[in-house]
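Narrative summary of target 7.
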Amino acid sequence: MADWINFIARDKNVGKITIDVLNKRIEPKVTEIKPLLAYLDKLKGIVNKELENNGFERDFIKKAVLNFEIPIESKVRTITCYPELTDENGKKYNVKNGIVETAYEVNFNPVQKLSKVGFIKRIKSLFG
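Modeled conformation, tokenized:
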């Protein structure tokens, strides 16, 4: 997920991305891409599993938001996540210093396309 967040933030020149896990929304809208949206079900499952493992009902958490900061002006590929949880009683759970993750692939670009000419040249080079 870090690779996708890092990629889309740099591609769209956005330094902050907010993911609302329970409502399946990503802000700003320009960063709401299918690969990140698809991951939201997994994140919601993680929240539910943790609640169940600790003796809570699934609907105990009313808000689960991940706030990401991405240093798009830097070549550093680390992103920082500040999760925010709110329970049914209104109690908020935050992480003060954030959780730091590094994007794995240096030049991750899932939308980069080979031009038709480039593709033909690659095939020709395979056959000498």
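Residues 31 and 49 are 27 Å apart (CA to CA).
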